[in-house]
Design brief:
Blueprint (H helix, E strand, L loop, with lengths): L1 E5 L2 E3 L5 E8 L8 E6 L6 E6 L6 E3 L7 E6 L4 E6 L8 E9 L2 E4 L3 E5 L2
Length: 115
């Protein structure tokens, strides 16, 4: 299982970013995929989960209405479009899934929201 996130960076408050997570080593279309984030000094928190066929997505209350998760099963990729970014969205963002008896993580991508 390999998960590689990309798309992070520095953005001003109110701006947007789109994160990508390229997956390999498993049958991507069979699994729910999640985005998590971890801010400095805080625990890792769940941001969004998208089911295997993309038909249902659950979001944390803190990002609802601003973030949109999506996936392209033909490309083995999951996305997180983040709009109206706030300084409190600053964190390392990870994609993740559970398979083979455990949760797998990518290396993460840093998102910094600052003026």
């Amino acid at each position: 299982v390999q998960l590689v996130e990309s798309g992070g960076g520095l953005v001003q408050p109110g701006g947007f970013l789109r994160l990508s997570c390229a997956a390999s080593g498993f049958n991507f279309g069979w699994y729910d995929m999640s985005w998590y984030r971890q801010a400095p000094g805080k625990e890792r928190e769940l941001v969004a989960t998208i089911v295997s066929d993309g038909a249902r997505i659950n979001y944390a209350d803190s990002v609802k209405g601003r973030f949109t998760a999506s996936r392209d099963n033909a490309k083995n990729t999951v996305y997180l479009l983040m709009n109206s970014l706030k300084p409190e969205d600053t964190a390392v963002y990870y994609c993740s899934l559970i398979t083979l008896g455990r949760r797998h993580w990518g290396q993460g991508t840093q998102v910094t929201v600052s003026s």
